[in-house]
Amino acid sequence: MIKQFMRGVALTVLYQMLTMTQSGAATLQESVDEINSALPALHPITWSAPAEKVKVVVFIDNQCIYCSYVVKNVKKYNDAGITMSFLTVAPDAIKDEVIGDMARVWCSNDPKNSLSKAMAGFLPDNDSTPECVKVVQDQNTLAVRMGVEAMPTMVVMSSPPAVVLGSVKPEIILKSVR
After folding, report:
1. What is the pTM of this model?
2. pLDDT digit string (tens) for the chain, length 178 residues
3. How is the beta sheet containing 54-60 ordered, strand by strand?
4. Cα separations (Å) of 117 from 45, 70, 114?
5. Pairing between β-strand 54-60 and β-strand 153-156 as defined by DSSP bridges
């Protein structure tokens, strides 16, 4: 049973990597380059590692339980040397709801705290602005263009880059860069 599960996970990761490389960019490295160039305008919510070994861009939605585990454990990732930058991806079935919720997070006075609370089911009390909605929509547009279909999707921004799916331990991410 566990072998079948792990084989399924491996196939999902392989599929995700193929999807990202076929999303208009010729290679995974080109996809990473596109993410890097778009990142400043997308205003990711970032927790920086004090002794950074690698940067990871994590595509999440606030209704994804596995995404909430990643955000809840961001300190463990940082302590392991992983800087985490979060962007929104909105599944089609709940797209408007996720974009509205996450725009409130991005518009809050303390986006890190708001993201942590939103991932635990407590959205901020503030309203969003059209500018925040546009930022979150742009994040989702990038995720769709990159072929992100499973959450969380972690793009390891090293050379060579890697894609890791799910709520994995920091050690798994660090192994992907060796």
Report:
1. 0.86
2. 444 444 444 434 444 444 444 445 568 999 999 999 999 999 999 999 999 999 999 999 999 999 999 999 999 999 999 999 999 999 999 999 999 999 999 999 999 999 999 999 999 999 999 999 999 999 999 999 999 999 999 999 998 999 999 999 999 999 988 7
3. 45-47, 82-88, 54-60, 153-156, 162-165
4. 13, 13, 5
5. antiparallel
Tell me whether residue 99 is exposed, middle or buried, using C-beta atoms within 10 angstroms of its C-beta: 0 to 12, 13 to 18, 19 or more: buried
Q: Please tell me the number of Cα atoms within 13 Å of 74 on its side-chain side.
A: 24
φ and ψ at residue 56, rounded to 5 degrees: -130, 130
Question: Where does residue 110 rank: exposed (0-12), middle (13-18), buried (19+ CB within 10 A)?
Answer: exposed
Closest CA to 60 of 121, 127, 115, 131: 115
The token pair at 104 is 């409130």
